[in-house]
Structures are given as C-alpha cells and as structure tokens.
Amino acid sequence: MKRIIKCIGLFMLVILGLFMMLVVLIIISAFNSKNNRSNESDSGNVIVKFEGSGEMPNFEEQDPVFADTMEEALTVVNPQVYFGEDTYIDQVSYIIKVFENDRYSTMFYLSDKNSKEGAFVAAKFSIKAVNGKKQYALIDIIRQGYSDSGSHKVTPEKTFSIFCKKIQVFDFGNLSNFGIVEGNRFIFGGIDTVDVKNLKIEGQSPTEIIEFPLYGEKNYFWYYENLISDKPSSEFDIEVE
Known about the structure:
The chain is α+β, with helices and mostly antiparallel strands. The protein is 25% helix and 32% strand.
C-alpha cells in the first residue's frame, strides 16, 4: 500500500512539474512578443513602421495606365490595388530622388498623411514615348511608414542594429528591382538617422548620399547604383566609421 501511495505521489509531482514548465513557457512567449513589437521604432524623433513584405499584393495583373507625369500616374491607378489602406501616398509631398532612362523611372519621395505621420515611398514606372513625349505608368510601389515620436530616444547601438537589419533583409522582396538598369544590384536606404557619410557595404561607399529634414532631424537617403557582391544581403559586411 505504501508503494502505491509513493508512486501516486511521484506521479502527481511529475504532473505538477510539467504544469509549472508550461506556465513558464507561456510567460516567456508573451514577454518576447511584447519585446518584438517594441523593436519597430527607429532612432531620434522618428518612429519607423515597416509595412508589407516589399512585394506587391497578390492580384490580377493590371493594365498600365499612362499619364504625362509620374505624379499624375500615381493618381490614375486603382488605389486599393497599389496603396492598400494608405491611399494618401498618391500625393507627393517632397521628392528626394528620381532615376530615369528611356524604359523606366523610379521616384523616391515623402508623402504626408498629416502633420504627425506619413510614409517614405519608392515608386517605379514604365515609360513609353507618345509623339516624342514621355508618359509614365506605375508598375511597382513600396512604402515605409513613419511618425513623430516626440521625446522618444534610442541608444546609438540599437539605432545601428536596426539600420543593419534593414539592409540585411534587402533581398527579401527583390527590392533591387527598384533600380532602372536591369542586371544591376541596386541597394538603397530611405529614412536613416545614422550618419551614413562613412557607410561602407562590402567595402564600397554609396554612389550618393542625400540629406533631408524630417521632424527637425537630419535623415539620409543613400543608394548604390550597382553594389558588387555575390553575397546575399543577410551576409553583408556593414561599416559606419
């Protein structure tokens, strides 16, 4: 009888131990989920929110709708197909950089939703000539939301870590396709408060760095017309001296 009671007691202890382990795992999982959500922010007064995967949503292929300017081409497409809920990004508030040749153009710009939030947008267009004049049709677009965070601050170390992570996931969604020269590995960054004047990726400096203000802070748009490297972006060597 004593053996039976002892075995029952041992069994109950095992059950109790497994239950406690389950509780601990649930608590850890909840903590990690909360911590991951807090990592959406960038440094300084700008909170950056990454939206989407960098790929166009799944939809039937759209016929190109051409217009006389890139700005007008943004307003004549189906907004729900190209912009989702962020229909305001068809309005160009500030142009940062335009790339253009005879076949394609890409415009990087800021679009203000209101005085406190907006989006950094990359829009690529197809070009055709009509009576010797170029016309533009939107073919691809991505956006990166931002907002004024007031007094929110992030340590330089975390800022650099976030900066590197954004570069390392660059191959995800084939963002190099926003370049206008086929075959080139076009790399860019849009809302960066990290001082990128001494940036080197794979030992190479950016083709150009453009400084622009956002909520009273210096931000940088930078790009490589053709980064020479066979590595995936997840393995890039990134330096900011």
